[in-house]
Specification:
Largest sheet: 8 strands, mixed
Number of strands: 18
Distance between the termini: 61 Å
Number of domains: 2
CATH topology of the largest domain: BirA Bifunctional Protein, domain 2
Low-confidence stretches: 248-252
Mean pLDDT: 89
Helix content: 40-55%
CATH architecture of the largest domain: 2-Layer Sandwich
Shape: elongated
Number of helices: 14
Radius of gyration: 30 Å
CATH superfamily of the largest domain: Bira Bifunctional Protein, Domain 2
RNA sequence: GGAUAGGUGGCAGAGCGGUUGAAUGCGCUAGUCUCGAAAACUAGUAUACGCUUCGGCGUAUCGAGGGUUCGAAUCCCUCCCUGUCCGCCA
């Protein structure tokens, strides 16, 4: 959520920011509603103050008169009742007026709130403007020694690459048919060494971030209340991407959803809290199963491990003080950790500065990391895939947008409460990361060379090979 | 799933429908005392929003929402949440 005060002071910044993000939210109407709401609220407060004052004055008198009623004859009763009516007429008039103002305010409030929640955080000035993901800007690339990204995989390695789908099938690393049989399209099972590799990757990434970089290891709930989804900024925009769990026993607004990322649990845990400022920055990492409906992606990336409904992810989150420089610093740190991880895995990658259109409503800045996937992309004249970049990581910088929605604050030097800043980034999401891993480390005989950093997590196994290969050698 | 007890400030815990934003205790902060600390004593100690002549003033908040009333932490209704016991269970 953006700061309504900032919107009042500088509406143009938010109007421009929304346009750049292709948002159609009606900010003009919001400003209008806000003005009305403020006027009504102020009038209400004034009436209310007046009413309180009068009540305090006439209270004892009313009490006295009501006491007299008990022991009065008919004539005095009538007289006293007239006096009571007179005494009460003014506060009753005020009461009615307050009621009218209340009605006006509660009519405005839901629309006001709804619009406010929809206003995207304006992108930072140094984020390139763009109209779609095509306008994202490549910041830098990295490839292991001996691998030239300007040349094809075949030129680099001396043989044509198989796709991860072929490799998975030959080495029996996953079972798509049975996954689909049980749960429908975009479901799968990891099997045998595939499952071992999947677990090894997660464990390697989790150990790297928690042991080497001091992030606190956490587990998180993946079933979360609607408030957490709204608070972290995934709702309302991403409502159709989340699995909704029916919970009719709970009241409205208390429905439960499956999280699409561990970020929801890591951020939600501090909602409505005033964090001890000595504890900042809070650096946390979790590994959790993530669920995504992939609504609107029908027909895209079908088959294989790229776009699936359920996967596991090691996620990093940082909550820091409200300071732009600090936010920027931690953003870089989070990216550096991923670069370190991918370099250890010997996977070529590139950093993409997302343009305004690709940021999503929460982010002031977002940098994606894409890994080179030789088996993706268009086919060349010989029917060989030309390879393509595929998104594996996404590092978000949100300033206080999320913390404001979550009401997550800390106390400043002078005792005032300040909304914290938050950031998050993927450490590693598997099985998607297995695509570049398998495709990049495949060898001519169809086996997979396991990077040395993973070998301890694979009981020392150095190569994945099919039973057929083993039999031949 | 069955039975029962509750939700008040950082915590514990009071609160006849009328100066109750809320007693008291603990905690915390500052001061006095001390070479220093502890103890003791004194003072202060919620949040949000609005207004401000920057000294304050006003409104809201006692789980949430609604109602009764001139006036609600206090009465009524609905919902939410939590604890305990029994049953079941990865």
């Amino acid at each position: 959520m953006i700061d309504i005060k900032q919107l009042r002071e500088n509406p143009q910044r938010f109007i421009d920011g929304a346009l750049e993000k292709n948002s159609t939210v009606d900010i003009i109407t919001l400003l209008d509603l806000d003005e009305q709401k403020r006027i009504f609220t102020r009038q209400r407060e004034e009436r209310r103050a007046e009413q309180k004052k009068i009540s305090k004055e006439i209270g004892p008198q009313i009490g006295k008169l009501k006491g007299q009623l008990k022991s009065a004859d008919e004539e005095t009763v009538a007289e006293i009742q007239t006096q009571l009516k007179e005494l009460e007429s003014k506060p009753i008039a005020l009461k009615n007026e307050i009621q009218r103002l209340d009605d006006s305010i509660s009519e405005i409030e839901p629309r006001w709130k709804d619009l406010l929640l929809q206003i995207p955080q304006p992108a930072d000035d140094d984020v390139p403007k763009g109209s779609s993901a095509d306008d994202n800007v490549e910041l830098r690339t990295w490839a292991p020694d001996g691998y030239n990204l300007d040349e094809s995989f075949a030129t680099n390695r001396g043989f044509n690459p198989k796709t991860h789908l072929e490799l998975v099938k030959e080495l029996e690393l996953a079972d798509f048919e049975r996954g689909v049989k049980m749960s429908g399209t975009r479901h799968y099972m990891m099997s045998g060494n595939g499952m071992r590799l999947h677990q090894a990757m997660l464990r390697f990434a989790f150990d790297l971030i928690t042991n080497e970089h001091g992030f606190t290891p956490m587990s998180v709930p993946v079933i979360l209340r609607e408030e957490c989804m709204v608070g972290t900024g995934f709702f309302p925009a991403g409502r159709d991407q989340a699995y909704h769990i029916e919970e009719s026993k709970r009241g409205a607004g208390h429905d439960l959803y499956l999280a699409g990322t561990g970020e929801v649990g890591l951020m939600g845990m501090y909602a409505d809290e005033i964090i001890d400022s000595n504890k900042l920055p809070i650096k946390m990492a979790t590994v959790s199963t993530c669920f995504r409906r992939e609504a609107g992606a029908a027909g895209r990336d079908t088959g294989g491990l790229y776009r699936i409904h359920q996967f596991d992810k090691v996620e990093q989150v940082i909550i820091c003080k409200s300071d732009e420089e600090e936010s920027r610093k931690w953003h870089k740190v989070m990216l550096t950790i991923v670069e370190e991880l991918l370099q250890q895995l010997q996977l070529p990658y590139r950093l993409l500065q997302c343009c305004t259109a690709d940021l999503g409503s929460k982010n002031a800045d977002m940098i994606d990391i894409e890994c080179w996937m030789p088996g993706r992309g268009e086919l060349d004249d010989n029917g060989q895939p030309t390879g393509d970049w595929g998104e594996t990581h996404s590092a978000s910088r949100l300033y206080d947008y999320q913390c404001r929605r979550l009401n997550m604050r800390y106390r400043g030097e002078d005792g005032t409460t300040i909304f914290a800043h938050s950031l998050n980034n993927t450490v590693l999401a598997s099985p998607r990361i297995l695509i570049p891993l398998l495709e990049m480390h495949q060898q001519q005989d169809g086996s997979i060379a396991i990077p040395s950093c993973l070998q301890p997590y694979m009981h020392g196994l150095k190569v994945l090979e099919s039973s057929a290969i083993t039999a031949n050698t």
